[in-house]
Amino acid sequence: MPRRTATMLASTLVLIALLCAGVLIKVPYAEMSPGPTVNTLGEAGGEPVLQISGRKTYPTTGHLNMTTVRVTGADYRMNLVETVAGWLAHDSVVVPHDTLYPDGKTEEQSTQENAEEFSQSQESAKVAALRELKIPVATRVVVASVVKGSPAENTLHAGDVIREVDGTKVEEPGDVSQLVTRHKAGEAVVFTIVPVKDAQAAEKAHKEPTVTEKVTVTTKKAEDNGRAIVGIQAGTDHTFPFTIDIKLADVGGPSAGLMFSLGIVDKLTEGNMTGGKFVAGTGTIDEKGKVGPIGGIQMKTVAARAAGAEYFLTPKDNCATAAADVPDGLTLVKVDTLDDAVKAMNGISKGDRASLPKCTTG
What we know:
The protein is of the alpha+beta class. The chain is built from ten helices and 20 strands. The longest helix is centred in the N-terminal third of the chain and has 26 residues, at 107-132.
């Protein structure tokens, strides 16, 4: 066999061996890449993403797309070849596995956490949108969760509305623990509640619940600090004057909040918010309309531009990272609140790019 041929054959065999080894070698990394985008003004799975009943709505045009990031699963371990390919690719990011899944989080735990965050983001988006429109939203204190094996188990239930503790009116979740810890372990606490089934029925009818009942729970001593506890976590819930449903499957996390809020505002407002433009964006939102940063911003701008977006609403705290690598043809618009976003949409609808607050790398 000629020496040159033998050398090429040997090199090929070595390369094949290295590739095989690379496929077999698992490394502690995960990959993020652009995910699908969904128009909050449009449909997903054959039905409208935003469904509003009991209130007049108005026709909408254009796009207000929420964006997503694909990530490798918590239980998946990338091999060396995949990791190197991810490092070389322009539209993906490889990060340490523990960055996305800290504390050994499993696939099931991650999915559950994302689902809870997505549900909470929908609630916050509704509240923020209605408050932006000066539509009153009632807030109430509820039992958020009941600890298994605690004194409250089978007596209080998640979703029960807490009106009073020992006859004292409850206005904030913190009031509940404050009133309970006035007791000593072994003493009885009297809760005045609206049972969850009655609260849900009243909410469905958009009425204030009138049925209340008193339940008594005997406290026990907390293991960590010795205080009296009953074993519940109090939280807040809201009642809306009409029905707003967000129908979107297979999406998790809190980062679609801003775009859901904008979609709701657009549907409840006469006029054309987008001016027919293709706008995408991202950002968490709280009940006061504050927009928060998210992860994977550069993956989302890539996804948005690939879908056809001309403008991208970017949380202020993500601006510097996003501006470091902007897809051609995409204008990054800096927003810090829902009100900022609504005002920016006015400029976008008119095609007035000069008036928009831009993201910069500085």
